[in-house]
## 1
Amino acid sequence: MPFTAFPDVMVERLAVRELPLFPLPNLVLFPEEVLPLHIFEHRYRMLLRTVLESDRRFGIVNINPETGQLCEVGCCAEVVQHKPIEGGRSNVVTVGQQRFRLLEIVREKPFRIGLVSWIDDAPPAEPLQELSCSVSGALTDVLTLTAKLTGKEVRMPDTLPSLPRELSFWVASHLHGATPHQQAMLEMTDTGQRLRHAYELLDGTRRQLAARTVLKDLESESAS
């Protein structure tokens, strides 16, 4: 039976829908993040054709490396660019949209389709601007120290979000090589909690880089 994009319906007060799933190991997509993909497997070529004929949306789900199972929370991706290439393959550009909780798998073949419910952060119980500033400050320090250690110019991105929720997602999406932390942050529904986790990670990195910078300065002094 071909997949049909069902409208969101209310079931037990949760907005749910069926969503084609694209499992990817060691990759966590966040809202507003741009994700290019090369589609070459037959089942995902079928998935792409299906979503292009409907609402252009499918779910990116990380695979738990310990269990081999799909993680419970993923992020919806919308195809914004599509370029077919030879052999039936495609290059696409997607952008992260809403997060979802995977309730169950409703079909396995030719590609997985899951029943999902949309999730979002709860309204903040505290002002988050000061915490956002601390995160931005730690990020600035990390980039400054990295530039000093590598001898290359590293600048704060012009597109760094100012809103707390968006900032927390941006930092989480740029934690390269930290997939377990990224998955945990994707699953958080408290913006403050996600920002505090981001700050802890950035502060830890800042301390390590500062120590390496001191050692590099001492070595330079000794050499001279």
## 2
Amino acid sequence: MADTSLQLKHKKLKKDRTVLKLGVFLALTAGLLFIACFGQYLVPYDPYGQDLSNALAPPCADHWLGTDRYGRDLLSRIIVGAQTTVFSALALVVGITLAGTVIGVICGYFGGWVDSLIMRISDIFLAFPEMVFAISIAGVLNGGIWSAAIAVGLIAWPRYARVARSQVLAMKNHQYMNAAKLTGARWYKVILKHILPNIMGPVIVTAALDIGAMIMNLAGLSYLGLGVVPPTPEWGSMMSEGRSMLQTSPWIVLAPGMAIFVTVVIFNLLGDTVRDILDPKQTRRTAGDSVRRMKRRLSGRNRREKTTV
């Protein structure tokens, strides 16, 4: 009884801790989105205004993150650039989540030649290295933020389609699904009422964990000159503009690089927490969990040895 009570207390404490983490990361994400929405009203300087007399100024009281080669304030450009970087990634994740889920549900529910054809097409997309394929597509489309988004979306949709398809196949032959079909419900009603609500957990987890990766991919394409076109502020293109001055003026690269790093960390931690809540079967085992498990094993072994003696 004592062990059971301790386990229940540990599970409750772990759940409360997870909910607290979710609240913290949601607050950080909300702050980031607030900056992205209203960045143009928060900037201390005009992000496009040039002041060549103040070019390549290091971080100081007037310019907290320094200036670039044209004398533009880096802090202002990073704040405004959050709108392009973050919202592009979020829009991309929403788009490929919807498209991939619809494709996966159709394949899993109907099966047959439709399933075989679409899954073979997804195999073709997955056969290429992701970034190499994205660079090729973005280059063919002549660059730009929408070209970069299309290129990244083409390499990401098979992941969502396969997640949705596997979930549909797992529940396709359940009794409640057969009962819904026997009542004469149309196929689209079965999908909307019975399938989609039950597969949204893994799909949302996949989307939440993918936001950071989408930010990195879009920033990488912009860094290579295949994304946002200067002078529009975007973190990847800002790093590209300053790469030739990394040794003499490192703040030009470090400032947008740190913005990408902090943003990706926030979204990754948020995605991990969402996974812990929506998909508890895949909850990560911490070092403390492993230590407690080892202690229980050792205590059980000691009790058995005493009983044997």
## 3
Amino acid sequence: MKEILLATAAGMVGTFAFAVIYHVKGRHLLYTFLGGGVTTFILMLLLTLTDGHALLSNIAAAFAGGVYCMVCAYCRKAPSTVFLIPTLFPLVPGRNLYFSMIALVRHSRAQFVDNFAAAVEISFGIAVGVLLSSLFDVFVLQRYLVRRR
């Protein structure tokens, strides 16, 4: 559990730095900071519980992050991408892409294929999670959150 909390804190700091670098407005920084924590915590928890199954873990983390961002967008009256892009930042498979490029340069075909396949799997998981959260937004959140106002 200690490793999960440490990774969550690192994800939150990375999300905050990403949001500051890309000029997210100050009134939205806290929400992107918390969103990075949500996605990182869910990712790390599910990776631990599923023995490293990256696809399902990234789908669930991206879905939770997407729903969180949609709710923030409704509550803060801002576009959801303001929250979504920084919130999904900790999920990006940069490590796998880096190691696949190193393997490509060193002509290590097996390592390249393994790392590149892992990066594609993670990217696919993020895309599916965001798609599912968008569908959830259309069919659930807009019906219940928008009607209240």
## 4
Amino acid sequence: MNTLLARLLQSRAFVAACVVAPGLWPAWPLFVTGDSSVAADPAKYVLHHLGFTAACVLVAVLLLSPLRAILPRWRPVLVVQRHRRFVGVSAFVYAALHVAMHFVYEGGFATFRTDWQKPFILVGLVAFGILFILAATSLDRVVRALGSRRWKWLHRLVYVAAVLVLYHQISARKVFPEQVLWLFGPLVVAELARVGRAVVRGMGRDAGDRALGGGSGAY
């Protein structure tokens, strides 16, 4: 099973399909089932769906680091790391579509003059700005220009963006809080597990160093 999953994750086409499929979901209630609750305001439904999908893809890319630390030898985790940049840029693309849909739904820049003063919209725009910077600096030539160390520090802003997206999703009431909890909860648990694993390993190394030091002193 793990081998099959690893082979699937090696394929850029498969990963791309997994990223694109959630964005196409609105076509199902709009054109297949004809859900009346969605058809009543399809633009609003698409707007909220794109925002939530952007959050989902962002969480997915953030999960890659803790999963690699927690399961360093699990092949599917190792294989999917090669698509990290693609998934990260996809989160920005969904966020850009969400912002564009907001302008369409709200009637363009005229309404935006007052809307941006709302805290949840301002926070969302800051998060979008961070994602834009991260996407723009994902090109190989930019990485080389910045240097590996500065590039890594810059891309840690993704965690700031995640916190802002969490606030944006909750305060905008685009989804039920339970959905936000189910989305960001696993990320928090995974990060705590990574920190716990690092602490345990650090304590183990310290204990080993003390044992070696004591042994050398005794002899």
